[in-house]
C-alpha cells in the first residue's frame, strides 16, 4: 500500500491496511475532539485537515497495551 494522506471523511469510515483494521469507524466529531486534545497526528494543508497513514499506524501501535494472562 502506498503511504498517502487521507481526510477526515475517509478516516471516519475506519482505517484498514493489508486486511488489518488499524482504526475502527468513528464520527468526524470524535476525530475533531482528538485533534483539539492533540491526541492524534494530523497535518493542516491550506486550511484542510489530513492524516498520514504511516503516522496513524505508528500512533495506533503506540496505544497498544500488553496484557499478561
Structure description:
With 69 residues, the chain is α+β, with helices and mostly antiparallel strands. 35% of the residues lie in helices and 25% in strands. It contains 3 helices and 5 strands. The strands form 2 sheets. The protein has a 3-stranded antiparallel β-sheet. A two-stranded antiparallel sheet has the order 2-3. Strand 2 (15-17) and strand 3 form a beta hairpin. It is globular, with a radius of gyration of 13 Å. The termini are far apart.
Provide mean pLDDT, rounded: 92
**Order of secondary-structure elements:** EHEEHEEH
What is the strand arrangement across the widest sheet?
A: 1-5-4
Question: What fraction strand?
Answer: 15-25%
Helices, by number, come to 3
What global shape is seen? globular
Low-confidence stretches: none
Give a nutshell description of this structure.
With 69 residues, this protein is α+β, with helices and mostly antiparallel strands. It is built from three helices and five strands, in the order βαββαββα. A hairpin with a 2-residue loop joins β2 (15-17) and β3.
